[in-house]
């Protein structure tokens, strides 16, 4: 790889870090390891071609263009955490991956946590993921961070909201939501 290609790859990985929290190669390798997948199966579950997955992992391509694929990545991350903590078995994980594969996006996939309470109200996690999905469908995480930085001097609370929901992890956004409800 020549110096120009190395620089482009490094820039793509840095963009991925700002948009997704880490380079996609690291994120996808962790999903492969945690869920016992190979690259072809991961690509199929996400709804990507194998070459596209490879380009994202290697840094030849920076952005996941389809918001539904981003949602599937988030759902797989949640599933991997449930497998790791033992709340979901390997067999259940396989079934859930099939469910994830078949989601069209637009609404957030539910997993083992209920999507509504017994009163019919949506759960905090569902509300948070809907907010994240909406923000991320409007703009890339890097652009949201830029907007947050521009707002920070005059509107620090709004800047924090944009950072947490637009570019942060779901767990951070849930904690923010719960802290600001009372």
TrEMBL record:
Annotated source species: Streptomyces polychromogenes
Keywords on record: DNA-binding
- DNA-binding: present as a keyword of the record? yes
What is the protein named? DNA-binding protein
The record's section on InterPro entries has: Cro/C1-type_HTH, Lambda_DNA-bd_dom_sf
GO MF annotations in UniProt: DNA binding
Gene3D superfamilies referenced in this protein's UniProt entry, alphabetically: lambda repressor-like DNA-binding domains
Question: What domain of life is recorded for the organism?
Answer: Bacteria
Task: Please name the CDD domains in this protein's record.
Answer: HTH_XRE
């Amino acid at each position: 790889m020549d110096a120009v290609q190395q620089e482009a790859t490094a820039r793509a990985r840095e963009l991925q870090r700002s948009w997704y929290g880490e380079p996609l190669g690291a994120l996808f390798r962790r999903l492969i390891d945690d869920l016992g997948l190979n690259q072809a199966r991961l690509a199929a579950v996400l709804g990507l071609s194998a070459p596209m997955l490879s380009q994202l992992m290697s840094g030849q391509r920076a952005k996941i263009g389809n918001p539904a694929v981003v949602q599937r990545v988030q759902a797989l991350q949640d599933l991997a955490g449930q497998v790791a903590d033992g709340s979901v078995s390997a067999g259940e994980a396989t079934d859930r991956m099939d469910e994830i594969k078949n989601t069209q996006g637009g609404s957030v996939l539910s997993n083992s946590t209920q999507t509504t309470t017994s009163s019919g109200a949506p759960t905090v996690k569902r509300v948070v993921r809907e907010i994240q999905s909406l923000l991320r469908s409007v703009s890339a995480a890097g652009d949201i961070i830029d907007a947050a930085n521009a707002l920070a001097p005059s509107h620090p609370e709004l800047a924090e909201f944009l950072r947490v929901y637009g570019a942060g992890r779901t767990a951070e956004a849930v904690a923010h939501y719960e802290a600001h409800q009372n």
